[in-house]
Structure formats: C-alpha cells, structure tokens
Specification:
single chain; 265 residues; alpha/beta; UDP-N-acetylmuramoyl-L-alanine:D-glutamate ligase; six-stranded mixed sheet; three-stranded antiparallel sheet; 36% helix; globular
C-alpha cells in the first residue's frame, strides 16, 4: 500500500484540511498520515479560531512518520506562519528527491478567514514553492503568489509561467472563480499547457475542494500515475464529490468524499 503524508491544518467541521485529505486518501486506497500544523475551530459558516502548532512539533511529527512508516508522496496544505514554513521546508530537504510533493497554497478559507499570515507569503514563495512537484493555486492564490491579476485564461497562463519560474515543477491553476459556464483548470507542465474542463455545478457545497483535489493528485502520483492522468482523475473525483455532496450545514457545505467507493482504486 502506498503511503501519503498530509502536512496541513485540522478542520473541526471535517470538510477541509487534514480531515478532507485523509478521506480522499482512503477513497484512493492509499495509507494516509498527517502532520498537523494548526487546529481550527470552524464549521460551514466560517473559521472562528485558529491555534497553531509550534514549529518544533510540526517538524517532529514529520520526522517520526518518515523514520518509521515512510512516505511515497506528500501533500502540503495550510502552513499558517513563516516559522512553520521554515520548519517544514527543512524537513522536506531530507526527503528523497523522487518523492512527489503536491503543494496547495492555502491562504484563505472559503468563508474568508486568513489561513496564511500576510508576512509568511514571501517565505512560502522562497522555501516551499521550489519543493513543489505540482503547485495547485486557485485564482486569488495565483494572483497573490505571482503578484499579477489573474481573472481570465490568458492571465492563468502567465501566472503558471511565473510560478514555474519560482521553482515549481508543474502548476495547476484552478479556474473555479472564472466567469464561465465550465470549470476550467490549467496544467502547466514541462513548458506546455493543458486544459481540464468540467461542467460547472451550481451549489454552495464546495468547502474543501482545493484540499480534496490536491490530495487526490498526491494519491495518484504515489500510485505511479503520470502528471496529466493524476490531474484528470483528481478533477473527475472532485466534480462528482461536489455533485453528490450530502448537503450538510447552513454555509459552504462539505463534499461527498466517499461517493466512488472502489471506483478509484
């Protein structure tokens, strides 16, 4: 069984963060492990409070997992502070360079709460992006990291090029915020772009889509799929998880991570 480690924050509502990651890993039949960077008190209406782990505790979780169980892929989500970013980057340097690292630049929650401190953005660019086998920003995240306005397909291409210049091996710019009838994502890999499109689903139940997509990519890469196939499979999984969402909560509701059962093995 392939082993995938998520380094991310905890979502008490279960829709995003390490909870979404572990559910996705199970759906893809890989063994999931977690290094918790922060604990959040949140539900579908938003984030009420955040308590960050110490950088030392985050690093120790990673070391204990790697030294005993081992990893075949890593997914990185909410890192919250420059100090945690530095600690994680130090541990990533110790890993085999062949291990895929999927980086989801979690900066804000669906409800608007800040999940990455403003003064940590430069540390993220300098210390985390160069480790990314694939970076998966949405449009606001791509805008912030590339420092350009990303609101159409042409700008998505420009942002992807900027972010690969920062050191990411591949970039998936997610177009969920585009004003189009389709949900279009751009994979920029080895100097070429590939579009992945799906029908847009009119729903408020989209909490944790970014976490879920990046975790599905990590699981697929751990299982040996090439990059384009891993992205395509992950997008199909997330699309159906949105379409079949259980309808929980009064705000941005969670997805149905279990819809496929064994279909994704």
């Amino acid at each position: 069984m392939k082993r995938v480690l998520t380094i991310a924050g905890s979502d008490s509502g279960g829709g995003a963060g390490i909870q979404a990651d572990l559910k996705t890993f199970m759906a893809f039949s890989v063994y999931g492990m977690s290094a918790v960077t922060a604990v959040t008190a949140q539900n579908t209406r938003g984030v009420a409070a955040i308590a960050a782990m110490t950088p030392e505790m985050v690093a120790e979780q990673i070391r204990e997992i790697v030294s005993d169980i081992g990893v075949d892929a890593v997914k990185i989500g909410m890192l919250f502070s420059a100090e945690i970013i530095s600690a994680v980057a130090f541990e990533l340097k110790k890993l085999d360079h062949e291990i895929p690292i999927v980086v989801d630049p979690v900066m804000r929650a669906k409800g608007g709460g800040a999940l990455l401190q403003r003064d940590a953005e430069q540390a993220f660019r300098a210390l985390i992006i160069p480790h990314a086998t694939i970076l998966t920003p949405n449009l606001p995240e791509a805008s912030a990291l590339a420092e350009i306005v990303v609101n159409d397909r042409d700008a998505m291409v420009k942002a992807a090029a900027v972010l690969t210049d920062m050191g990411a091996s591949a970039v998936l710019v997610k177009g969920g915020h585009l004003k189009e009838d389709v949900a279009a994502d751009l994979l920029w890999f080895e100097g070429e772009g590939q579009w992945f499109e799906s029908s847009r689903i009119d729903t408020r139940h989209t909490h944790g889509t970014g976490c879920t997509l990046s975790s599905a990519i990590a699981a697929s890469l751990a299982r040996g799929l090439p990059m384009d196939q891993a992205v395509g499979l992950a997008k199909r999984y997330v699309t159906e998880a949105i379409r079949l969402a259980p309808g929980l909560g009064s705000g941005n509701g969670p997805l149905n991570h279990h819809w496929g059962q064994s279909a994704w093995i």
